[in-house]
Amino acid sequence: MNEQSAAIRCVGLSRNYGPVQALRNLNLEVPVGSVFGFLGRNGAGKTTTIRILTGLAHPSAGSAWVAGVETTQGDSAAREMFGYLPQDPAFYNWMTPVEYLDYVGSLFGLSPQQRRQRIEELLTMADLQGAARRTIGGFSGGMIQRLGIAQALIHNPPVLILDEPTSALDPAGRYEVLGMMEKLRGAATVFFSTHILSDVERICDMVAILHKGELVQVSRREDLLAQYPVNTLLMVRDIQQPPFTDAFIEQVRALPWVTQVNVEETSLRIVVRDISEAKRVMMPLVVEAGLQLDRYEWVRPTLEEIFLRVSAE
Question: Which residue in 24, 50, 80, 105 has a CA-CA distance of 20 to 30 Å to 213?
Answer without folding.
Answer: 80
